[in-house]
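Ticket 4471: requesting a sanity check on a complex prediction with S-adenosylmethionine. Repro inputs:
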Amino acid sequence: MDKLVNKVLLGDLRDVCSNIPNNLVQSIITSPPYFGHRKYSGEDKYDNEIGRERTLKEYVNNLVYCFELLKPKLKNSGLLWLNLGDTYRKKELLGVPWRVAFALQDKGWILRSDIIWKKPNAMPSSVKDRPTKDHEYIFLFSKTSEYYYDADSIREPHVTFTNQSKMKGGRNHFGKKNGTPENGKNAGNQNLHDGRWDQAFHPQGRNKRTVWEIPLGKFRDAHFAVYPEKLVEICLLASTKRNDFILDPFTGSGTTGVVAKKFDRKFIGVELIKKYQEMAQKRIDETTFQATLFDFTQFI
Ligand SMILES: C[S@@+](CC[C@H](N)C(=O)[O-])C[C@H]1O[C@@H](n2cnc3c(N)ncnc32)[C@H](O)[C@@H]1O
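Returned structure tokens:
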């Protein structure tokens, strides 16, 4: 098994997947090719490239088949983070991410959250008859209702405590200077106790929200659909501990592997196209462990 650690396996996921032991992986963090977007192989010949299917139905079926093969690799306590973008055909938005999500639900995956990845630096577009799209989805799936999730590792700053906010938790909010839910004009209001206290006043911040604003990463030239390291960081911190295995079955340029290594997780990747497999392996080999603390301020 050690020979798999921090390695990107070359080949079609559907062939290579059997090399990965069952119940090994704590978290799958991945972004498969989107439907009909682009050919990663360029002029090279790869008939088995996901995303090049003739119909949306074939694409959804292929992805569902891939994730059914991956399911036994994931521990029962594990999570799947699936990033997907949408596609327009003849002016119509196809709703691809949700179609995939529903199809996975039909196979027993538990959809725990939809997350909007908002891209502040999304490519400008020339459309004039609809809003310009600047988001993609991330779906969070579990295999069972009990799974590992470290909410504290990805908390966000409380908006109620910022200087810009009208709800500072001072006199205005609680009718008393330095008021709290227990000690102020709302004292005795059951709604502000227990769970609400944790939501609003947890010392490490509020629970992570479902809209994540993260700029596209720097490594865009080498592979045209690279997701940002920050996005992987959040998924990784919430769903794994040090030394856990993380799998990216559509490795591309290797972003998941780079972040996994930086945070001392063990990575396994799969990539169909040789030039990307080599690029990803090189990037991962050149990455070293960095004991980074999560930077909450980026979300303020
Ligand atoms: C959207 S890209 C992943 C980008 C990656 N998240 C990154 O940050 O670089 C999807 C990748 O899946 C690969 N791919 C397509 N079909 C595949 C298959 N059948 N098995 C394994 N990988 C495949 C493509 O070559 C492409 O590099």
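Notes from triage: Strands lie at 7-10, 25-30, 74-84, 88-89, 92-93, 110-118, 135-142, 211-213, 245-248, 266-271. Leaving this open until the requester confirms.
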